[in-house]
Amino acid sequence: LCDLSLPLAQYRPVMIAQNKLALNLCAAVGVKTCTIHLGNCIYEQKFPLAHYWELAEQALEELLPEAEKCGVILNVENVANPPSQAELILRCRKKFDTPYLGACFDSGHAEIARSCHKSDPQSAVYKAWGWLPEEEPRFDDLVPETVIPLAVTCHIHDNDGLHDQHMLPFTGVNQWERIIALLGRAPRLQCIQSEAKLHVHGNTLREAVSAFQKFSAMLEAERNKVQAVSSHASPETA
């Protein structure tokens, strides 16, 4: 009931109320960002993709004033489901010119959007598109380039390119050098979160620490390169 593009009219007031409550709870405990999915399309009745996108924008029209009142940035996350594509995130950001709307870059979802076209029609993403009438699956190789410049927070995990496995970084097929190069230049980035499911994949804490130490070192090196270029380009001061 938290998806912004929820197409069931009788539940939309509850969805809006829940998300307003979430924003106020964040404010009450000093949390400055709140991440949400734009939507899914797993309903018995099939709706056109454009209808989901319109509903998501309507929800943002109601929620963004609440976010501003709470002082909490509302971040919409890229998901491989049709109503949560990077294209819609960019569209929303262009429509709502407010610092209280941001994005959450999800590395695992971006990889599925990039490479799931290699899968067969029985894959989860193909099935998600099957809920839409007269729509062919769309795959997007540019999710990092679209979402990371808007990102205030990000979810870090890996997968095999076909399934949302939430593995440790560097254990799947994610293009980490490409992603980290973009994150090192992300102008709004405030928060990096692990979404690796250690218990599912039998990882130890030592393995997790090692993976994220590698990630952090790569990100720090990228930020240092950006700073060095910026300092070199700036005029010298006396």
Describe what this molecule looks like in 3D.
The protein is an alpha/beta fold and 238 residues long. The chain has 9 helices and 5 strands; from the N terminus they run αβαβαβαααβαβαα. It has helices spanning 12-28, 49-70, 86-95, 107-115, 124-129, 143-147, 176-183, 198-201, 205-233, and strands spanning 33-37, 73-77, 101-106, 151-156, 191-194. A 5-stranded parallel β-sheet has the order 1-2-3-4-5. Strand 1 (33-37), helix 2 (49-70) and strand 2 (73-77) form a beta-alpha-beta unit. Helix 1 packs parallel to helix 2 and helix 7 packs across helix 9. The longest helix has 29 residues, at 205-233.
In short:
The chain is an alpha/beta fold. It has helices spanning 12-28, 49-70, 86-95, 107-115, 124-129, 143-147, 176-183, 198-201, 205-233; strands at 33-37, 73-77, 101-106, 151-156, 191-194.
